[in-house]
């Protein structure tokens, strides 16, 4: 269930995120009190401050929830189905909605360890930016890794 990734192209707001992904780094934000926030955060929900610093996350996390998408919600995703969309809690705290690369979703369990992996988006005809996706960390016999 790995599928393909449609071409993702950066804009001004996402340029630093995709440049970091191309270097193998997952960027997140840190608020003034040290709280780590998701990459797209614009303000710290605790303080309301927009004074956020960008930092590099470990790329390690825990699987919170997932679903297998069998019907593409958008035409651009038609070639991707089926794929697994998941919520991952990063080791640093924030939750991210991610693409999870896995062959057998029936082997996934809540709490499974996951890690980031970087893939170039695009379908062969159109090439996009490198994007972070996640995969299960093998902790036993065939935990669903592709």
Automatic annotation (TrEMBL):
Domain ChsH2 C-terminal OB-fold: 57-117
Protein name: ChsH2 C-terminal OB-fold domain-containing protein
Organism: Mycobacterium florentinum
Highest taxon of the lineage: Bacteria
InterPro entries, sorted: ChsH2_C, NA-bd_OB-fold, Thioester_dehydratase-like
Pfam families registered for this protein in UniProt: OB_ChsH2_C
Residue ranges of the region described as Disordered: 119-146
